[in-house]
Design a protein that fits this description.
Elements (H helix, E strand, L loop, with lengths): L2 H15 L1 H8 L3 E6 L2 E6 L2 H21 L6 E6 L16 H6 L18 H11 L9 E4 L6 H15 L5 E5 H13 L3 H9 L3 E5 L8 H16 L3 E6 L11 H7 L3 E4 L5 H18 L9 H8 L4 H18 L5 H7 L1 H7 L5 H12 L3 H5 L5 H17 L4 H7 L5 H17 L1 H15 L1
Parallel strand pairs: 2-3, 4-7, 4-8, 5-6, 6-7
Antiparallel strand pairs: 1-2
The chain binds adenosine-5'-diphosphate (ADP) and magnesium ion.
Adenosine-5'-diphosphate (ADP) binds next to helix 6 and helix 13.
Keywords: ATP-binding, Cytoplasm, DNA replication, DNA-binding, Lipid-binding, Nucleotide-binding
Subcellular location: Cytoplasm
Subunit structure: Oligomerizes as a right-handed, spiral filament on DNA at oriC.
Length: 443
Amino acid sequence: MANVEWEQVKADMRAAIGAGNFKSWIEPLSLVNTTEGVARLAAPNPFVGDYVGKTYGDQIIYHLNRQGMSVQRLAFEIDGAANTAAAKPAAKKPKSLTADAQPDQRFTFDSFVVGKPNELAHAAAKRVAEGGPTTFNPLFLYGGVGLGKTHLMHAIAHELGEKRPDLNVLYISADQFIYRFISALRDRKMMDFKQHFRSVDVLIVDDIQFLEGKESTQEEFFHTFNALVDQNKQLIISADRAPGEIRDLSERIKSRLQCGLVVDLHPTDYELRLGILHAKQETYVNVYPGVEIATGVLEFLAHRISSNVRVLEGALNRLYALASLVGRTVTVEMAQDCLSDILRASDRKLTIEEIQRKVSEHYDIRLSDMLGPKRTRSLARPRQVAMWLCKQLTSRSLPEIGRKFGKRDHTTIMHGVRKIDELRQSDSQIADDLELLRRALED
Ligand code: ADP
Ligand code: MG
């Protein structure tokens, strides 16, 4: 086939897919020959061939045929080599890959304290870190802030670095991924971007809830994801909630995420917090020589600071710093004093709004109906349940509660509370509901 015809096909493709895509994907190709319905195209690397074949293959075939060729299939060659399948992407690490793959030295499996709430996540992370054949893909870790997701992910990267130095391991947070994607689009470097992410052996993406509402980035993430999973490359992903609960995440991504192993890190319990504090204390011995901590202090912290491990560590750190300054043994009184702000913030205060929200969810009614004027049984009963819970679980007065229930009078609240008090005795369904809701709210 004459060059002029290929030039025409290229011009048609440019018109069809736009100058940007054309420049990245079609321009680097050249036509080698066409025989027996197969058009052979030379691509600069296997990735381009692969991508073009999947994305633009049909269009190219169409335009070749319009130029009078009878082509049914495309075949890509790389640097004169025979086919795409045999040629692997370059094995050497791109520079930036090495740069962002440095795991945080503090976050290792050794420094991770295992307890009931995180034992599954820990076991799964350990398994992946062995670097053996992939048994579950992706590993999806989720849980609230400060429960150790990032720690575990770095630990995996760390251990793989030691056990399997031959593997390309990339740790990246989802917002870095978004940033890189946008920069690549802007700088017309999509090809480098794709190749960069698709040449890794283990991809670790932290905090993917940041992809919420970012459609085009999600699309790219999805392609990267599929490309790696198809090649049996391990993916490890984290978010602050379960895949199904991430808003605006495309259904395709959700279902792919759920195909692997989904493990959650539960909120810490007292034993785990105490264990973490003891482990931390050992590391402080060298940093703050001579500082003494009275018995009962760690227990006090583990009991009072239940929000997240980061805050817990911060508190211990502050105590040590103070103790070394004043040269005294840290006592519980001193801890109370020096950590009063943290302790206050950790005292969980339940709000009327939270209660209303939880109760409307439980009974599957709209929040606006709970607060609104309608008095049908199906709305009035949940409303009274919410009033009762507000009275029991908060320190708000009846008039204050009334105001938050669509400006109702305090006598209405009183009536509602009494009604539920009565029903609790006679109606076991209501009694169960109250117990369930109370536990959910106090958790
Ligand atoms: P997340 O990513 O879930 O928000 P991180 O992994 O950043 O939480 O953890 C917050 C801090 O708590 C880190 O300093 C981490 O080392 C520490 N931490 C969390 N869980 C544990 C644990 N089980 N053992 C030791 N340290 C922990
Ligand atoms: Mg994190």
